Amino acid sequence: MLETLVKLPDSLKQEVLHYVEFLAAKYANNEVAVNPPQKKRQAGMMKGTFILPLSDDFDAPLEDFQEYM
What is the reported pTM? Predict the structure, then answer.
């Protein structure tokens, strides 16, 4: 990174400096977690999210299988 920074013109070096200062101020009080803690999943969290349109005769026996019963 330093080699690339040295090759930049002075105007771009100034922009990089401003950006680094911005990042330093933004994350000064917030420690960036390398592996943030994951929320544990709970059963039933998505209940009611997906609504499938079912016909009125959904539970009715199928004609194709009548001969086997």
Answer: 0.41
Give yes or no for a contact between 30 and 19, defined as CB atoms under 8 angstroms apart: no
Q: Is 69 helix (H, G, I), strand (E, B) or coil?
A: coil
Please give the chain's pLDDT, 69 residues, in tens: 889 888 999 999 999 999 999 988 888 776 655 667 788 888 988 888 888 888 888 888 888 777 766
Find out whether 16 and 8 touch, Cβ atoms under 8 Å: yes
Per-residue H/E/C for 9-64: CHHHHHHHHHHHHHHHHHCCCCCCCCCCCCCCCCCCCCCCCCCCCCCCCCCCCCHH
> What's at 66, amino acid-wise?
Q
